[in-house]
Design a protein that fits this description.
This protein has 102 residues and is an alpha+beta fold. It is built from five helices and three strands; from the N terminus they run H-H-E-H-H-E-E-H. The chain has helices at 7-14, 16-25, 32-39, 43-55, 74-93; strands at residues 30-31, 59-64, 67-72.
Length: 102
């Protein structure tokens, strides 16, 4: 059964900086300071993007003293990947289907 792909999550990940953040967090848990260094983004801009990722459930936070660490939620990414895999399988199955014109 084909489910719809989570378009809200795709919109969240479509932003180049947010995708860069997700890619970095796929490699290790990082604090805001590390992400500023890695991306070159301003701290305020980065914080706004992290808020969007947090609200979308893509990342989770871990307070550590005066720093906040961010960790990628692999289950969310895996779920989205599964939705795309299901979509690809549906396309393979339907490759020979063609609706005739009236």
């Amino acid at each position: 059964m084909l489910t719809s792909v989570d378009t809200d999550l795709i919109r969240v990940l479509a932003d180049p900086l947010r995708l860069q953040i997700v890619t970095l967090l796929a490699q290790e848990t990082l604090c805001t300071t590390h992400l500023v260094e890695e991306t070159g983004a301003r701290q305020t801009n980065l914080s706004n993007h992290l808020k969007v990722l947090r609200e979308a459930g893509v990342v989770e936070t871990e307070p550590c003293g005066r720093f906040t660490y961010y960790r990628l939620r692999a289950d969310v990414i895996a779920s989205l990947a599964g939705q795309f895999a299901e979509l690809a399988e549906s396309a393979r199955t339907a490759a020979g289907n063609k609706r005739s014109c009236p």
